[in-house]
């Protein structure tokens, strides 16, 4: 049994309405930092509101340390939550804001003093305890909201897009701060975001959610390098994965992924997995950094196509090149500082073990058996 176990969780907002959460299962270990990642409307907020007890569960169980908390009052669940709009009270000092939940729990005065100061140290607002929220910046107010949520030492700390009201620069620095606070407090945290770079930089494990279902659970590197579905490969990474419509065919005794623009040799290790797809259409995905460019027109066994580069977007450390293969726009992320001029003709070769194929119907990755 894990620290938090979510089993067969389902949610309908109305009796005959759609299942907005459709059989979610998740186990979280004590001290983990979990990020729920997915597009707007996929159900992230609904799940954490059900954990917090702010929303009814249609069916399923939410177990914390082996006890099913479904049906319990929010205040009895040992869970704290902060929101996008950090609701702190304007008429109270920072100290009183943080102390408030402890006073509700009738914690003694000395203990309140000790815990507020200890949390304020972790969130780096010790010098501001006598201020009022109006005298603070957005980032500082969000730190007060975090302090107030963690001062009660919750079993689970839930955060619903807590950084989205902050400006871009502060957002990035608050990521590191929140992660630091998490490390110091050893809290078990669930953080909701639709921003994949926020998820990648903060999570121990990412839960990718789409249309009320979990697409994949994994470390940031796992969901990036080993995407389980077409949605995950598309949603994670900037620029996103390039996709091609291809048909699997045997040509000259070799399995190939074919369309009007290329005949690409299926990598050896995927031959067996792709054999049942012969004469069927599948989606082929390649991340922009796994397409190699040869202006000398050198073609390897894993040659995709020759092409003319249409646009170049220099990024300093690398460039993003934009081209077309047939009807498909393709983005290439160069791995060096080399500058390629627009209108350059080049051969595109692929790293064979980085090519992904997805089943058209299930959208799942076709893996070697
Ligand atoms: N109170 C409600 N009544 C009916 N439907 C709702 C209600 N709240 C949310 N929904 C629907 O449930 C689905 C999931 O919504 P939810 O807010 O959980 O998504 P989300 O992933 O958190 O989105 P966002 O990133 O935009 O906040 C959506 O289709 C939404 O329209």
UniProtKB/TrEMBL annotation:
InterPro entries documented for this protein: AAA+_ATPase (IPR003593), ABC_transporter-like_ATP-bd (IPR003439), ABC_transporter-like_CS (IPR017871), ABC_transpr_MalK-like (IPR015855), ABC_transpr_MalK/UgpC-like (IPR047641), Mo/tungstate-bd_C_term_dom (IPR008995), NA-bd_OB-fold (IPR012340), OB_MalK-like (IPR040582)
BP GO terms, sorted: carbohydrate transport
Keyword vocabulary terms for this entry: ATP-binding, Nucleotide-binding, Transport
Keyword NAD: no
Gene Ontology cellular component list: ATP-binding cassette (ABC) transporter complex, substrate-binding subunit-containing
UniProt GO molecular function: ABC-type transporter activity; ATP binding; ATP hydrolysis activity
CDD domains, per database record: ABC_MalK_N
ABC transporter domain location: 4-236
Name assigned to this protein: Sugar ABC transporter ATP-binding protein
Source species of the chain: Youngiibacter fragilis 232.1
């Amino acid at each position: 049994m894990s620290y938090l176990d979510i089993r067969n969780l389902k949610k309908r907002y109305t009796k005959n309405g759609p299942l907005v959460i459709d059989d979610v299962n998740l186990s979280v270990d004590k001290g983990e930092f979990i990020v729920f990642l997915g597009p707007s409307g996929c159900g992230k907020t609904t799940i954490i509101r059900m954990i917090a007890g702010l929303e009814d569960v249609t069916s399923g169980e939410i177990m914390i340390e082996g006890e099913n908390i479904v049906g319990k009052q929010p205040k009895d669940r040992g869970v704290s939550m902060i929101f996008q709009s950090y609701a702190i009270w304007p008429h109270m000092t920072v100290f009183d804001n943080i102390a408030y939940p402890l006073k509700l729990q009738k914690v003694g005065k000395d203990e309140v003093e000790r815990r507020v100061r200890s949390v304020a140290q972790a969130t780096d607002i010790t010098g501001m305890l006598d201020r009022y929220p109006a005298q603070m910046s957005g980032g500082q107010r969000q730190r007060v909201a975090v302090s107030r949520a963690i001062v009660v030492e919750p079993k689970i700390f839930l955060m619903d897009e807590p950084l989205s009201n902050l400006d871009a620069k502060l957002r990035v620095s608050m990521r590191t701060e929140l992660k630091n606070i998490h490390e110091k407090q050893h809290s078990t945290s669930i953080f909701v975001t639709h921003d994949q770079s926020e998820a990648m930089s903060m999570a121990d494990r990412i839960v990718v959610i789409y249309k009320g279902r979990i697409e994949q659970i994994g470390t940031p590197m796992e969901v990036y390098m080993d995407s389980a579905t077409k949605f995950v490969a598309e949603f994670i990474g900037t620029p996103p994965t390039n996709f091609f419509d291809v048909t699997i065919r045997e040509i000259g005794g070799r399995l190939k992924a074919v369309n009007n623009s290329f005949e690409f040799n299926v990598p050896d290790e995927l031959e067996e997995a792709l054999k049942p797809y012969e004469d069927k259409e599948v989606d082929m995905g390649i991340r922009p950094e796994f397409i190699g460019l040869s202006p000398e027109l050198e073609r390897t066994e894993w040659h995709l196509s020759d092409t003319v580069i249409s646009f170049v977007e220099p990024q300093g450390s690398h460039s993003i090149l934009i081209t077309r293969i047939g009807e498909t726009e393709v983005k290439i992320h160069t791995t060096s500082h080399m500058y390629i001029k627009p209108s350059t003709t080049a051969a595109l070769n692929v790293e064979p073990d980085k090519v992904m194929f997805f089943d058209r119907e299930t959208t799942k990755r076709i893996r070697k058996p």
